[in-house]
Amino acid sequence: MNQPVIDLVDVNKAYRSGSLSVQALDDVNLTIDEGEFVAILGPSGSGKSTLMHIIGCLDVPTSGVYLLGGEDVSTLDEDRLAEIRNRRIGFVFQQFNLLASLSAWRNVELPLAYSGLRRRERRERAMAALAQVGLGDRVDHRPGELSGGQQQRVAIARALVTEPALILADEPTGNLDSASTAEILGLLNDLHASGRTMVLITHEREIAAAAQRRVRIRDGRLTADIDAVTR
Amino acid sequence: MNWLDTFRTGLEAIRLHRMRSGLTVLGILIGIAAVILTVGLGEGAQSDVSAQINSLGSNLLIISPGSSTSTGGVRGGFGSASTLTTADAEALASKTVAPDIAAVAPTTSTSASLTASSTNWTTSVVGTTESWLGVRARTLQSGRFLTAADETNGSPVTVLGSTTADQLFGGTSAVGQTVTVNGVELQVVGVLTSTGSSGSSNDDDVAIVPLRVAAQRLFGGTTRTGVSTIYVEASSGSTLSAAYQEAQSELLAIHNIATSTSADFTITTQQSLLSAATSVDKTLTVLLAGIAGISLLVGGIGVMNIMLVSVTERVREIGLRKALGARPRVIRRQFLVEASVLGLAGGVLGVLVGLVGAMILPHFVSSSVTLSPTASAGAIVVAIAIGVGFGVYPAARAARLAPIDALRTE
Fold this sequence. Notes:
heterodimer, A: alpha/beta, Rossmann fold, six-stranded mixed sheet, about 35% helix, B: alpha+beta, six-stranded mixed β-barrel, two-stranded antiparallel ribbon
């Protein structure tokens, strides 16, 4: 029996802003198996970003258990979490989050630098990842010299350069036109086809359609798993 | 992320904000240069003074009349008579009484006008014996010094300082010429070598005459055997304190004084002269270095300020780096390296500016500036330490940022 990549059990997340307590996640249960392509669909303020932050080990739940690859994340210290983010998760953000002062390949090699690889190997792997997203001829361009779609492709190259098991994409097409959107979704599909587990967070039904399985979130609750959960 | 990568990232961040980094470096630079220059100036002034005092001679004791009391006053003898006499000097010169005293030179000194043909020149006329030359560690440029025979015979001869000789005889040789002092004709038998010192008391502007000539023929007066200063040379540096004791007990015995606290004379060593002369300089140096140190502190606060701005401005970058797997300590290290690079740059440039200042400054002030390599290296180390010290808090703040809070900031 394959262990699920992501296993959330009764996860709650409450934020406190002043005297107000906001329940961002309310008893969330979610299991994602290896190789799945899951879309988490919800309007803004539904808690979908909070869910992604918890899945991505950027934040910890207030209560409940999160098992990542069978490991209870709440027991890990900050260094170990950094290592997990570095080795096992690739992030794609809506804002691209590229460093403007660095060229494309320097942006892509960044996670490898934090995993302690030598510079030569980092460069080779960054070049390969950029070639994989079709930017082999733009490696020395800075983000400012690239279009939005190209910037997001650089970000995807950065997410896959460490060869993570899981790729988390948070509204990856939110800032893109329709042509670029199609391009990026195509890339994500390719990555999924090559065996990676993919979690896509969006508020657009059409984007979510790219995934095999769709999960709806509203007011911090997973309201419906549109396709049957296969456990 | 290894150190090289961290260093490179730090340099990139500094280069990205050239103006801001440059101003921060300037703050440190000014502080370091100020500290180096003030300390160098103080050390230069001290070495000037000690060179001047050491030029008096070596292993020297200076005995002067009157006693310095604990309140700082000077108690003199009755009337205006000096309490020291030539008899005192003769007693001290005795090997049996004072075995550790190598030579004794009693001196009297008065200002007088010297006339040579049509020129005259006012200088200090010093009456002394033949041992003065050795005790004061002087040499002759030409001619000879006073002899024991000059003293016993009261020969009308004089030895001039180089400045005095120049003033009276210009370029021509002074030896063999005649000068007139108070109507007494003196033959110039020698000229002293210039000490090259420039100070309040110019050792090159002097006319040396036999003690007996000074006392009996030039100045007369009632105290023919009185002397103004007795220079005593100890046989070596290690016997200096023994010589001091011998001179003191001998003089107390001759003067019939029971305790050294009521002595009518004062014995000064070069060391005590030195410490008296340099203590003022030291106070001033400490004061100036303190002010310079404050400017260094301000420079350090500048580093902290800029690093805090940098952390705030780069919250998103820090969050991203953390999301990509940077551990807190790697982030902390990156900001510390950045701060210490700023400190290093400020330190190195500050030392360079200090070096240039040390070359220029002596043209404006009459003091030399001593820059030691150790002080310069120390200044650079201090500058780096300031960078690190004031970078710790901003770096810790950066390291503490939660990746999620950092990424959320727009």
